[in-house]
Design brief:
Elements (H helix, E strand, L loop, with lengths): L9 E2 L6 E2 L2 E4 L8 H12 L4 E3 L8 H10 L8 E6 L1 E2 L1 H10 L5 E4 L2 E3 L3 H15 L4 E7 L3 H7 L6 H23 L3 E7 L15 H11 L5 E7 L6 H4 L8 H8 L2 E5 L3 E4 L2 E4 L13 H22 L11 H8 L6 H26 L4 H27 L2 H13 L9 H10 L6 E5 L3 H8 L9 H9 L1
Parallel strand pairs: 3-4, 3-15, 4-5, 5-9, 9-10, 10-11, 11-12, 12-15
Antiparallel strand pairs: 1-2, 6-8, 7-8, 13-14
Helix pairs in contact: 1-16, 6-7, 10-11, 10-13, 12-13, 15-17
Length: about 475
């Protein structure tokens, strides 16, 4: 992939497109973030050529960044995949004003729709945000919300499934027209439920989706499917749920391109396992003393505020943000748990405290100078805390590495993330593994997985799943 050489490219099913085995996943990527932009540019500079985004990723900001970056690269050398279906944020405002048909009102602030009237707006908005005349691959984004919503109210029957695939077919007919008009090249479905067993009533069938496309035209443009797969979620490779074949085997047999998402974020027993190293494998995770060292610059800065203005700190009196974090962080289960709670328990109190201090110290230059230092310290501090929390997860990563070796993966010094990616890259039928790479360091790490020695991936996954 170093220079985008054709030898490293794989066919994306029968679409005629050829993609790098590792794709750039744009979930949580946003315009205005210099690190995100640097990471995407590095991926493309190193020969990467498939970008996967969605209309609802950071409420359109992901697509906007993709469009800005693509202006500096040859358009025909980059494959752009985007998705539509979610009604949130800007789309919620649009849907409330337009009243689209067949909207699935799944929950408060989360609706879903794949009706042509809604999809027409999404194709246009995505193309506008990315400054593209033609979108290479346009996917329906988790249309199984219809089945999940129905299942919350009753046991599903065949009539529900017929209605689901009718809606899919209706969307496909619209997308065929978009192909004819040159607005998209290929279309497909991204579904979290492709790998589920036949016994799961919300399972999405690639076979039935393909039947819908074939009923429209023998020259249909349903060419790509996307699904999650990782060491723990192996249904796409191991579950025989499509005419007696797995998703990978079925897609390979019928010429469908397969994009894999969430390769390093595994949901297992109601928890998320991050398949990566966070510190030196086998090393001891950092303890209380390391946390105190991380918080010391903040503690000193807060002390200076007390000395200069005698302003009560965040928790009142002499107890500030450093004290709050020293108590809170050891109670946080993981870096992902931290992301869930930091807004409510840390950022919101900071905002309220800062506003109160502004009112009290309006026009005071000492306060203004101090606040500038404080705000400049907080974001890097949060990143340090995230790294500290991730380092606590290293023993779990070490256990995964040991299990993999027991299942036949050769002992290696490569990172766990590289190992986990390389196993998926070695599965027959996988066109491209999409990895979230928000930082240049993530790009550097992930790209090395492409060059790891070949392994018997299916055998390893079968043993790991036992």
């Amino acid at each position: 992939m170093n220079n985008g050489g054709n030898n490293s490219l794989r066919p994306l099913g029968s679409t005629g497109l050829r993609c790098c085995p590792l794709g750039f996943g744009c979930y949580r990527i946003a315009d205005g973030n210099a690190e995100h932009e640097s990471a995407l540019r590095l991926y493309l500079d190193r020969g990467g050529n498939l970008i996967d985004t969605s209309a609802n990723y950071t409420d359109g900001q992901s697509e906007i960044l993709v469009g800005k970056v693509l202006k500096g690269y040859s358009r025909e050398k980059v494959i752009v995949v985007t998705k539509a279906g979610y009604i949130q944020g800007q789309n919620m405002t649009l849907a409330q004003a337009r009243s689209f048909p067949e909207v699935v009102k799944y929950g408060e602030g989360l609706w879903h729709c794949i009706h042509p009237e809604f999809l027409e707006t999404q194709v246009a908005l995505s193309a506008h945000r990315m400054q593209l005349e033609t979108i290479d691959v346009f996917l329906l984004h988790n249309p199984e919300y219809f089945l999940s919503h129905q299942s919350h109210h009753k046991s599903l029957v065949e009539e529900d499934h017929r209605e689901f695939y009718r809606r899919v077919g209706q969307a496909f007919r619209f997308l065929e027209k978009q192909v004819a008009e040159g607005k998209i090249r290929w279309y497909g479905i991204s579904s979290n439920n492709y790998g589920r067993p036949l016994s799961d009533q919300t399972m999405t069938s690639v076979h039935r989706c393909l039947e819908e496309a074939q009923s429209i035209s023998s020259n249909h443009h349903f060419g790509v499917v996307q699904l999650p797969m990782n060491l723990y979620e192996t249904g796409g490779a191991l579950e025989s749920n499509n005419q007696g074949m797995s998703v990978l085997d079925y897609c390979r047999h019928h010429g469908l391109g397969v994009l894999i998402n969430r390769p390093l974020n595994a949901f297992y027993h109601n928890q998320m396992i991050r398949l990566a190293d966070f510190t030196r494998p086998g090393g001891s995770p950092p303890g209380k003393q390391e946390l105190k060292s991380i918080l010391q610059p903040l503690r000193e800065l807060e002390q200076s505020l007390l000395e200069q203005l005698e302003t009560p700190l965040l928790q009142g009196g002499r107890s500030g943000l450093a004290d709050l974090l020293e108590k809170l962080v050891p109670q946080v289960r993981s870096a992902d748990h931290w992301e869930q709670i930091v807004g409510r328990y840390v950022i919101r109190p900071i905002q309220q405290w800062v506003e109160a201090c502004r009112q009290k110290n309006r026009g005071n230059s000492i306060w203004e100078n101090w606040l500038e230092q404080f705000l400049g310290l907080v974001n890097p501090l949060f990143e340090e805390i995230e790294r500290y929390l991730r380092a606590q997860q290293q023993p779990e990563s070490d256990q995964v590495r040991k299990r993999l070796e027991h299942c036949g993966y050769p002992a290696t010094s490569h990172s766990l993330s590289q190992i986990a990616l390389s196993i998926l890259l070695n599965l027959q039928g996988v066109s491209c593994v999409l990895n979230g790479m928000r930082r240049p360091a993530y790009v550097e790490d992930a790209l090395r997985s492409v060059y790891l020695p070949q392994v018997k991936a299916l055998s390893i996954l079968k043993k790991f799943a036992v």
